[in-house]
Amino acid sequence: MIRKTTISWITAVLGIILLGAVPFAFDNLTFRIDRYTSGLEQLVTSLLSPESLVYLTDAGERALFPEILDPFFYSITVFFTALLLAVLAAVILSLLISLLPDRLYRGVKFISFLFESVPDILIAVSFQLFVIWFFKQTNVLLFPIASSSHQQPYMIPILCLAVLPLILCLRILLFGIEKEYDEPYIQTAIGKGMTRLHVLSFHILPNTLAGLVRQLRTVVWFMLSNLLVIELLFNIYGITNFVYEYGNPAIFTVAMLLFYLPVFLFFLALDVLLKIWAQEEDDSPSLSFSFEKAKIVWNGITAVLIKCRRLFASLFSEPLFVVGFGFLALLTAASLYHQYAFDDRVPQTLVKYAKDGVTPLGKAPFEPSSDYWLGTDQFGHDLFYKIVSGAKYTLGLAFLISGLRLLFSFFGGLLFYMMRDRVKEWLKGLVASMQYMPVALLCFFVLFPIVTNEELSFWDKGIFQILILTAVALPTVSVLIGSEIEAIYRKEFITGAKVLGGSRFHLFRKHIFPHLTPKLSLLFIQQVIYVLILLAHLGLLRMFFGGTALMEYTFGSMDLIPFSLSNEWSGLIGSYYNQMLLRPYLILFPVLFFSLTVIAVNLMLEGIKKAGEKGAWQTTAAFKPRKNRLQKAVPLMIFILFIGAGSFVGAKFSTDLKPVSAKETADTKETKKDAPAAAEENKPVVMLNEGSIAGFNEGRLGLFQIGQTFAEENGVEMFGKPEKVEKNDGKTIYFFRQTGYAFVIGTDSDQKIEWLQTELDVTRDDILRQLSKADEQSSDRTMLTYFKQTYRVNFFLIGSEKWTVSVEKNTES
Asked: What value does the mean pLDDT take over residues 307-322?
């Protein structure tokens, strides 16, 4: 055991160092071995002299040690307290739940299943909002919900961090208790007159606790990822937040090594207890695999695919699978319909008017209502349509990345299976190092230089992100699949087939691969859940799919907030979570859809398990599940409900997004013919046409010219009183609005116009087409810059098909 423990410690430390050097390896989108080796050498040199490590703050450089120890000890305290609380609560609850009547027992199990599907972000946000709501109602602060210079919160982070591990441990214990109840010794104990509580406490629970201890590494890995989210949302000065704020590859590696030491000691103590508890078998057979017979393997795969037709028929007879599949299919169909029928258009309402079209009723943002099902953001964008638009990216990424992980890991698992036992032992230790670090932080350091690179296109960044999110899971999943192959190889029927003369390829094709297929299907669904959670965590780190752009929070204020170019849900979470206290619905609804998606995927997973229990994965053609009429009708009724929901959503699309006909336009103008001119034409101040292009040549937007003297009366005459006037160092900025569109004028100390800015409802292609003869200076998808004679014209993307255009003196000429 000492040798095995030493190898495990050495390989895990080595793995953390090797992973810590990965961000050095990329030159834009290219992985370069020479950069990786030089970065690894630099990293090792830094680790050998930790006193020289520094991190940058606004006040300058500061020594990493001992500053990093305070957040480290805080995070360790929160982490292990939450873990121990979760395990203790799970043991107590498992005993109480197991004593319930069967009907209540099944209901509690289903509730725990639903809670297991809730992402950590929703738990943390709900805790915060509840404490704030309770404080507003009673003026009593239950717990501090954020850190300050005087204190760090403990209670709420520990409770939030313990919820999901509690549910996971409870599910593991309940599953183990159910299996133990079928063992003969339990029936003997019950037959001797022992009470149910006595049997549970002294016979079943000790054996199930051993199974829980073996699976605690997975629970710890979940908790490490959750710790990052908790520290970000509660603004806690912990180790993961410290790395995110000040980190580089060296600081990231140091922090992970610090965290690994207590976790390693914790698992070492558990392994010693397990060795005392029971003797484990470590022997595992190896299989020499010849690629010359790959055709035989391919034939085996083909045979399994042919049998999938019966499997799918069985899956779609399971109500749980149908509910999960139907929800995801509805989301995907609505998102694709929204794209191809309505060009992914997101309605925008900056000002809401009465039926007369003149009287303003309010301005964005709007709360959820019958007009705006999920409300709007401060720019007037309908959140419902943003979520629908981003569904195809969110679901598509989850299933694509999971499929790529499974495909490459399958071949990686075969390679792992073919290795010698000693090599496997070292490789398992290297791979295990990924269980002691938040994967989102590793992805952050790799993706940050790419996502912030304005020279790369949307799909350059998107494809790179897909590859990185696929690669980070390949070692772990490959080892898992290889271990599953080993477990199947140890079965008695494999030994019998070998005795009867079956070759290794025959064994793999006829026995191992068919028994591995259901495991792969379950693993695929699990990876979908992991990818969804990882995307949500990256959203909090502002790593959005296809790149992260910036938008002014208030027009003309220069306060920039991040936003997603694709409306992918993690991007919505990252964009809106800073506004949680002002408009909670903006983050709650994207997180809620994330939660519903994870629940749907878990329902599909449960459906696959139930189909497997009924024999759907049997290789014999004789299997035919027996169903009564009600069982046959339930999936059909579920499909009809989803079709009805889809029709309802489609009708809303048609109502909100239908193009305005010429007749409707004429009727509208007739109705408004007596209205003031400013409200008669609901359009931008400046249209993008030949006249405005000619105006750019002269430094002009609309009726205003750069260099002309501007008086506030000019604006009042054109646009009414300014919404806001700012004065600084003799310069003045006027903010106007016309039918919801902003117009900004900047003047110098002599009230001469220096720059002009307004909004346009156009696409990027419209701008490129109208200004095709101009000299484009930027390839950024969110910005276009043109030099027109002595003036510079800038276009900035501020929303879906919404841009600002500004004209100013060209200081570079």
From this structure: 68
pLDDT at residue 566, rounded to an integer: 81
User: β-strand 741-747 against 753-760: which pairing, if any?
Assistant: antiparallel
Rounded Cα distance, 705 and 699, in Å: 6
In whole angstroms, give the CA distance from residue 344 to residue 313.
34
Count the alpha carbons within 13 Å of 211 in the hemisphere toward its beta carbon. 19
Rounded to the nearest angstrom, the gap between the alpha carbon of residue 264 and the centroid of all alpha carbons in its chain is 28
Query: Looking at residue 1, what is its pLDDT?
Result: 63
pLDDT at 400: 92
Q: Taking a C-beta distance cutoff of 8 angstroms, is the pair 518, 553 a contact?
A: no
Residue type, 94: S
pLDDT for 733 equals: 84
Q: Are 569 and 593 in contact (CB under 8 A)?
A: yes
What pLDDT does residue 85 have? Answer: 92
| Residue where a domain stops, chosen among 36, 65, 94 | 65
Element (H, E) at 791: strand 791-799
DSSP 722-779: -SEEEEETTEEEEEEEETTEEEEEEE-TT-BEEEEEEEE---HHHHHHHTTTS-B---
| Cβ contacts of 140 within 8 Å, gap of 6 or more | 134
Report pLDDT digits (tens) over 581-605. 678 888 888 888 888 888 888 888 7
Model confidence pLDDT, tens digit, residues 27-54: 777 888 888 888 888 888 888 888 888 8
Domain membership of residue 17 (yes or no) is yes
Residue 111 CB neighbour total at 10 angstroms: 11
As given in the structure block, the two tokens for residue 451 are 């996502």
184 by Cβ neighbours in 10 Å (0-12 / 13-18 / 19+) ranks as exposed
Q: How many residues does the chain have?
A: 813
Burial of residue 509 (number of CB atoms within 10 Å: 0-12, 13-18, 19+)? buried
Which of 617, 640, 662 represents a domain boundary (last residue)? 617
Residue 32 lies in a domain: yes
Contact 234, 157 (CB under 8 A): yes
Q: Residue 742 forms beta bridges with which residues?
A: 737
Reference 297, options 478, 504, 489, 508; nearest CA is 508
Query: Under 8 Å CB-to-CB from 414, ≥6 apart: which residues?
Result: 289, 481, 482, 485
Same domain, yes or no: 296 and 442: yes
Instruction: CATH number of the domain at 453, please.
Output: 1.10.3720.10
Domain span at residue 449? 291-316+387-617
The answer to whether 706 touches 753, Cβ cutoff 8 Å, is yes
Residue type, 693: I
Nearest C-alpha neighbor of 353 from the set 663, 671, 660: 671
DSSP label at residue 577: G
**What's the whole-number average pLDDT of the chain?**
76
Residues in Cβ contact with 472 at an 8 Å cutoff, skipping those fewer than 6 apart: 434, 439, 442, 443
- Provide the β-strand partners of residue 809: 791
User: Could you identify the residue written with the tokens 């005392």?
Assistant: 276
Shared domain check, 699 and 552: no
- On whether both 515 and 585 belong to a single domain, the answer is yes
Enumerate residues 6+ apart whose C-beta is below 8 A from 323.
600, 603, 638
The total of structural domains in the chain comes to 4
pLDDT single digits (tens) 515-531: 777 778 778 877 888 88
Q: Please list, in sequence order, all residues whose beta carbon lies within 8 angstroms of the beta carbon of residue 149, skipping any fewer than 6 positions away.
A: none
Which residue, chain included where needed, has tokens 């695929």?
524
Q: Which 3 state secondary structure label does DSSP give 35?
A: helix
Q: 611 in helix, strand or coil?
A: helix
Residues 84 and 61 in one domain: no
Whether residues 732 and 762 fall in one domain: yes
**Is 133 in the same domain as 85?**
yes
Burial of 594 (0-12, 13-18, 19+ CB in 10 A): buried
